[in-house]
Amino acid sequence: MTPRIVSVDCPTCGRKAPFDASNRWRPFCSERCKTVDLGAWAAERYRIAGDSRSDRADDWGESGDAPTDDSRPRD
Ligand SMILES: [Zn+2]
């Protein structure tokens, strides 16, 4: 007999989750896993968009005038 219930691996925890109308969180196994996955995606997106420090580092790198410890007095 072929099982009628189709299941998928939950992207968050890897457990089998039913992939049908009875699972409102599909392809996740639960609301929690869906929230965790979306939160991780949002955090990743925010971290990349908000990372401006690396841009400033590139600025002084490309100018050829990278600061060195010997050329400037320390406080
Ligand atoms: Zn899960």
Describe the structure in your own words.
It is a single chain. With 75 residues, the chain is mainly alpha-helical. The protein has a domain at 1-45: Erythroid Transcription Factor GATA-1, Chain A (2-Layer Sandwich), CATH 3.30.50. It is 39% helix and 8% strand. It has 2 helices and 2 strands, in the order E-E-H-H. It has a two-stranded antiparallel ribbon. The radius of gyration is 24 Å and the shape is rod-shaped. Bound molecules: zinc ion. Zinc ion binds at residues 10, 12-13, 15, 28-30, 33.
Bound molecules: zinc ion
Q: Determine the N-to-C terminus distance.
A: 78 Å
CATH topology of the domain at 1-45: Erythroid Transcription Factor GATA-1, Chain A
Strand content: 5-15%
Query: Could you tell me the number of beta strands?
Result: 2
Given the helix and strand composition, which structural class is it? Answer: mainly alpha
How many DSSP H or I helices?
A: 2
CATH class of the domain at 1-45, named Alpha Beta
Low-confidence stretches: none
For the sheet with most strands, the description reads: 2 strands, antiparallel
